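Can you give me the bound-state structure? Components:
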Amino acid sequence: MRNVSALVFASGLAFLLMVIAWQFTVGAAPMLVGEAILQQAASELGSANLVTSVVLGYRGIDTLGEIAILFTASTATALVLSSISDKPSSKNNTEIRDKGTILSSSASLFFPLLITLGLYIVMHGHLTPGGGFQGGVILAAAFFLPLLAVPGRGVNHSGLALVEGFSGAAFIVIGIIALFQGNAFLQPLWGHGEMGSLLSAGSLPLLYAAVGLKVGAELSGLLAQLGNITESEEDSQTESTSTKQTTMQAENK
Amino acid sequence: MTSDLIHWLLYGGAIGLIVIGIVGVVMLNNIFRIVLALIIAEAGANLLLVIAGYRFDAIAPILTGTSTNQLMVDPVPQAMVLTSIVIGVGIQALALALVLKIYQNYKTLDMREIHQRLSTDIDNSCGVISLLSSEQPAGERPLPKPEALINKEGDE
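Here's the bound-state model for the whole set.
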């Protein structure tokens, strides 16, 4: 019965969405806002990547809100997981288990490459595809690799929190500086520069660097939490199965 | 005719992903699969947004020296999807953390069993007699313990 009602609901929803989607035209000219942004963004903001000028210039406050959502999600994850991971970690931290030479040496080989790639993508967010969000994810992956190779190695959570807090504060401070100069909050500052050069588009690269560091710190903290918990979970499972086996053997005897 | 077909395919694919995800959330009983269904629905929503800004024969909205008068796709949906993907990762991590916590406490991923045990746990800790089952005797007779009820159902 529940399945039938779910299917009826889903087909109705699909019909409704398709009727709405049929009103749109596919592959036609962008909507009015998009058209206006395409024509004005280059002269107004001086950023070669128009997506970046939308993310940081026209929708800067939304990006601030999205960073806040990410911060809330990572804080909530840490809150949910911390109470479990505290218990086995006291035993885990004493011994650092290496997962093999190949894994650990390739992790140390890839670490600087991934850091370089992530920073490159963050710094060139206003010129090429990419930016703070994408580069931040690559930075987080770079910091997660050594943790995969050598599980049980502690993560510097206070350092991560410091980076996260400072980059988040930098984003807001840049917005407030714009307020002090008589502009709107988060309005791009400091001229345009030459379009296509690294030091162009005013304060947009600084904002994207703050976003990149914040996303990287948050996601690497998150991944470290999840990695630790799955590691301790494996331990407890093997322990419980071994105790089960011993009890079963005892019963058989 | 072909543009109609493309229209159907693009929007139908994106909406199909959304509907598959919602059906999964409603119908599945394993909470990890519910998280996966949520991810599928999210991918469908992102795809729908990107399609809404698509334009035939257009390039990515990045100004380069060579192509000055080329058509460009709408940058607004792309900017929205860009942030929504990263937020999606955060939400998925939070959902996975909750799943892990539930599994550690109850050693099961079955939604119905978790719901039953959660409500009995809440009732017990509040000191209220559990009103979960309508077949349970209303008083007078000695009530079976909640663990006995669960084990009985699990055996069936």
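A couple of observations. The CA atoms of residues 159 and 203 of chain A lie 26 Å apart. Helices of chain A lie at 2-23, 32-45, 50-58, 60-92, 101-123, 132-149, 157-180, 204-252.
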